[in-house]
Amino acid sequence: MKDISKSFHGIHANKDINLVVKSGEILGLLGENGAGKTTLMNILYGLYQPDSGQIKINNRPISIKNPIESITHGIGMVHQHFMLIKNHSVIENIALGYKDTPFFFPKIQLKKKVEEFSKQFDFKIDLDQKIWQLSAGEQQRIEIIKALLNGADLLILDEPTSVLTPLEIQELISILRLMKAQGHMIIFISHKLDEIMDICDRVTVLQKGQIVGHAATAETDKKSLARMMVGRDVVFNIDKEKLEKGKKILSVTDIHITGDKGMAAVKGVSFELFENQIFGIAGVSGNGQRELAEAITGIRKVDSGSIRINGKDVANKSPRQIYDYGVSHVPEERMRFGIAPGLFLYDNAILKQHHLEKFSKKYFIKYNQVKKHTNSIINNFKVATYSIDNQTRNLSGGNIQKLILGREISEKPQLLVASHPTYGLDVGATEFLRQHLLELRKQGSAVLLFSEDLEEIFELCDRVAVIFDGQFMGILESDDERLCDIGLMMAGSKISGFH
Amino acid sequence: MIKITTTDRYNITPFRSLMTNVFSLAAGLFVISIIFLIAGVNPLFAISEIFSGSFGSAYGFKETLTKAIPLILIGAGLTLAFRAKFWNIGAEGQLLMGAIFSTWTGLTFGDALPSYIIVPMIFMAGFIGGAFWGIIPAILKIKYSINEVISTLMLNYICAEFLTMLIVGPWKGKARFGFPGTDNLPESAILGVIPGSRIHYATLILAIVCAIVLCVVIYKTRFGYETRVVGENPDAGKYAGIDFLKTSLIIMAISGGLAGFAGVGEIAGIHHYLGYPASVSSGYGFTAIIVAWLAKLNPLYAIVSGIFFAGILVGGDAIQISLGLPAATVEIVNGTLLFFLIMGDYFLNNKISIRLSN
Q1: Residues 6+ apart with CB under 8 A from B46
Q2: Which pLDDT does position A10 carry in this prediction?
């Protein structure tokens, strides 16, 4: 790619980008949120047209007007969110995206071909299963097969590990290595330094739409990559103050919750949480964390057990009642629960607070106050936007997350339930948000932190519980030596002496 | 080679919004001209006839205002429902139910009560009737996940048939000599008109007040805020502690209730008795969908777009008579304009640039 530029309403998303990928190579594309990684790849995949610049394959300039053309040029892309039809089977989904699918009996003819491919890359997939029965990792493999079947020489993976469990990540990495050995080119988009170091041969760092550096991973280290990415040094270990725990805020006793598919998602979990404390719940996602967070904040019903906040039972109370008891919530699925995308920033800045006296008088909303409040969130939390009269959908994911966190933290909650608060954020924003969580702890709030990121758990938490299959595998103080076994606990073995 | 790129447009000024509508209407009228040409009529003459028929003469303008009353009422109510993404296609049925309720009230109590009591009563009854018919699909949607487009549309037919059953059966008036229809409402229940016209001014004032109040409700109140949140993202509404059932019920009660008001106006202001559904309302419930859309879901603008479409209805009648065109012509005009207005929205929200390149 040569001199690629693309701007959206006057702001450069990409500026004079030059990128070269050689065959048999994995190139990492590293950058903060909104650095222009995804835009660049969407140009390569034909979803956007560049304002200027040229794309060449084998030294021949080509123009890619749409994804179909990019597929014929041997470019495949696996998006962060999968493009599969949930009620169809694996083979039907593959047939749908395959360019040479025969009109009659497509499945029978295609099956053989797919099985060959699966063997070649050591995939184990039942082709007749429906998509919704599969895990995220399996769905991703189907996307990869689809791209390979269409003859992709260059495969673009957009944040491929964000939805995977650690084990699935290992499997993905071995698949990628196999593909590399067979001469495929891979562009791997990520903002996780460890993965980039682990998987890629070379790495290109983007910052504010421009390339700020190239490096071979063998000749660089995490620290200098991080510096390149944010343009300054990043504190990897935040020092947290020793604080005595205050009075008890939250106590959960033997709680049982049913999940979306009617199966028990949380099976008898109990714990307590105090002022000036951060309680971490670690574990691979999908083990009941989401259901537990939703139950505590009132979005989901509880089957049995009690949730007490300051001694009052709030199980099965409405989200607003629980909010009024002093519980804030940063939801896991922020686009689904956290914002109304078509409304203005200032509308979203009071999503949960609009009924408070501060912002509404009898039946009316005090928009003057609301706008003032929104401006202070935007300044304090460095939300990048040209105006608060902006539709929230125009913000990048990271900025939306900052807005939600600002909204939930600025009310000084007694308890903050934060689900994966730094998921998808770049290093700089992550550090900033963690500082805010610690500040909240210092001010006397209790924080319940759900995270898959062990580094985050170790850095922030006073106590850590590990959840597996809806049950706690153990609750440990942050200085407990047995925390080294956290990997084992996450895989489902209980710590000795814990019930 | 021609290169076409589209980008989202972020800063939409009121002026641009207005100009887009003007251009869309112009483009729509251009296509309508072609249709007139095919029908063998001079399009310039036909279009000028439509507008001179509705806005060009005192008589025409009075008729336009008369027809604008139900369109403004229903259109304003629909802006609220559509903002909550509740696709209420059932305003026609809600209007008829309002007409049924108010007719019953007028016939039952009208003889014994003076105007200043019975008129508010029939409006109240009409609102309740329309709201009742509007709440049913809201309950069906939220409790049983039944698509509101289907249920509101079907409820139109149920209500129309129910009304027909009433006027040929139990409610058939003694003074009708066997023809279907109820007796006339008593004098006290009949709305006053501006002399020399059919404009029942009480309903016109009510329509304008409703539109203004709704505008304040949508943009300034907590309920309006909750409506917009629910419409944009119901899950976020749940997270924010908004009671989805309660909000939807109120929205549909208002939307249906305003259509019910329109039904009262038609009965007590124009016809003075309950006749066949097609004579009570000439499709106002459907035309009002376009009114709400042209108003960009702002109830205040529904006043202007309501008058505009009333003008087209009246002008359509005018060209039927003067040019001998079929009655369906005006529906073609309406449909074409709606099509172009919706298309205009796309060009308002997206910036298209066409460039020549090698």
Answers
A1: B36, B319, B323, B325
A2: 56
- Residue A50 and residue A188 in one domain: yes
A277 strand-pairing partners: A446
Residue A242 lies in a domain: no
Q: Choose the closest CB to A351 out of B7, B236, B243.
A: B236
- A86 with A178, same domain: the answer is yes
Task: Tell me the pLDDT of chain A averaged across its residues.
Answer: 82
List the 392-421 stretch of A: residues with Cβ below 8 A of B.
Answer: 394
- For residue A170, what are the contacts with CB-CB under 8 A and spacing of at least 6? none
What is the model's pTM?
0.74
CATH number at residue A71: 3.40.50.300
Q: Is A260 in CB contact (< 8 Å) with chain B? A: no
B239 vs A contacts (CB less than 8 Å): 297, 299, 319, 329, 331, 337-338, 351-352
Contact between B232 and A337 using a beta-carbon 8 Å cutoff: no
Range among A416-420, B124-128, B237-241 rated most confident: B124-128
CB A49 within 8 A of CB B3: yes
Yes or no: say if A211 and A18 are a contact pair by the CB < 8 Å rule.
Answer: yes
Determine the residue among A39, A52, A335, A365 to mutate to test chain B binding: the one whose Cβ has the most chain B Cβ atoms within 10 Å: A365
Supply the range of the domain harboring residue A53.
Answer: 2-230
Q: In A75-128, which residue ranges form alpha helices assigned H by DSSP? A: 90-97, 106-120
Q: Does B240 touch chain A (CB under 8 A)?
A: yes
* Structural domains of chain B, with CATH: 59-350 (1.10.3470)
Judged by DSSP in three states, A464 sits in: strand
Residues A299 and A418 in one domain: yes
Instruction: Please tell me whether residues A263 and A149 are part of one structural domain.
Output: no
Question: Which residues lie below 8 Å from residue A454, measured CB to CB, with a gap of 6+?
Answer: A282, A486
Length of chain B (residues): 358
A233 or A73: which leads in pLDDT: A73
B241 touching A (Cβ < 8 Å) = yes
A363 close to B (CB below 8 A)? yes
Give me the helices (H) in A281-394, please: 289-296, 319-324, 345-348, 367-380
**ipTM confidence score:** 0.78
Which chain A residue has its CA at the smallest distance from B2's CA? A65
